[in-house]
Amino acid sequence: MEQIIGLLLALAVMGVAVVGCMLPGLPGTPLAIAAVLAHKLYFGDASVRWWVFAVFVLLAGMAMALDYVAAVAGAKKMGASRWGMFGALAGLLAGVGGGFFLGAVGSFLGLFVGPLLGAVLLERATGRPKNEAWRAGLGAAMGLLAGALGKAAVTGLIALLFTLEVLWQSLR
What we know:
This protein is mostly helical. The protein is about 85% helix and about 0% strand.
């Protein structure tokens, strides 16, 4: 019974981690890794093997790198300049900060609206035409969304593989 409760608790934390990949303020993927590590340390041989844990850490690192690369690639692909990417970052911080006071929905909206408007404003301030500025802003927002979705998918994969591994270990 204790192992079932431990598995369910770890999966609940991983569920929060998947949501955390989409909402600012929650660590997302690192939280899932922490849940796996806590489960391993508590349950020992009844939990995941250390090499499986190492694979999860590698997957988490790849997910976080994907998040960054997708945001930059989206902005670059749509023609953002360095100023546009700086504006997207500033807009992200402002959007998340402002959204924080409006709750989870505000944070989620701020995560995507902030970079869009930040990139557009700085692109326009440097003299880029309106349509190019909006295109760059859209690229930045789409890149952030793609990165967040990719990170959430990898975190969900870690949760699924963790469950299968723990079940496998309990049958041995």
